[in-house]
C-alpha cells in the first residue's frame, strides 16, 4: 500500500472512531436524568393548551411586527403581556428549569471534551467566515 | 458539576478521538511553532489584544480614533503575511470546520442544539 493510501485509510479510521464516540456520548446523554426531564418538560408544554394559545398569539404579533403591519407599539405591548403570561405557566417554568439543567450538563461535558482534545470544542465549532 | 461516570467516560473518549485526528494535531503543531517564535507570538498577541479592545469600544458606541485604526490596519497587514501566523490560522480554520461538523452530528443525534446549550451566554 502506498503512503498516500495509508494516510487516507488512517484518516478514515480516525473519522470512524469520532463517529463512534459521538454515538456513545449521545446514548449516555439521552439516558441522563437531565435529558429525560427536558423531554418530559417539552411534552408538558406541548400538552398545555393555554401555553400553546399564548405561543400562537406571540407568533402572530411578532410576525405582524416584523412585517410592519398594524400599530408597532400595540404589538410590543401585547408581546410583553403575552410573554409575562407565558412565563407564569407552570409547564413553561418547568421547561425553563429543565433546559437550565441540560445547559449545565452540556457545559460540563464540553469542558471534559475540550480537556481531552487539547483544544476548546464548542468554542471552536464554528466555521470561519471572513478570514 | 459532577458528571455521571458513563457520561464523563464518553465525553473523554470523544475528546481523545478528536485529539488524535490529523486536523487537531496539525493545529496544535502550528500553534506550538508560532509560540516558539518570540517575535511572531508577540505580534499575534498584540494584534489579538488590539482587535478585542477596539471591538469592545466600537460596540460600546465609541468613535475610534484614526491613529488607533491605522495601527490596527498596520498590524493586520503584518499578521496576514507572517508565515507562522498564516499557517496557524489556516490550521485553525480547518479545525473549526471539523469541530462544526462533529457538533452538528451531536445536535442531529440529540435532536437539540448542542452548541447553544454547551456555551455560556
Number of strands of chain A: 0
Low-pLDDT residue intervals, each spanning 5 or more residues of chain B:
none
What is the string of helix and strand elements of chain A?
Answer: HHHHH
Q: What kind of oligomer do you see?
A: heterodimer
The largest sheet of chain B, given as strand count, sense and whether it forms a barrel, is: none
Assign the structural class of chain A, choosing from mainly alpha, mainly beta, alpha/beta, alpha+beta, or little secondary structure: mainly alpha
Overall geometry of chain A comes to elongated
Could you say which structural class the secondary elements and strand pairing of chain B correspond to?
mainly alpha
Overall residue-averaged pLDDT value of chain A: 91
Largest sheet of chain A: none
* Terminal residue distance of chain A: 37 Å
Which of globular, elongated, flat, extended, rod-shaped describes the shape of chain B?
Answer: extended
Query: Termini separation of chain B (Å)?
Result: 17 Å
* Distinct helical segment count of chain A: 5
Return the string of H and E elements of chain B. HHHHHH
How many beta-strand runs of chain B? 0
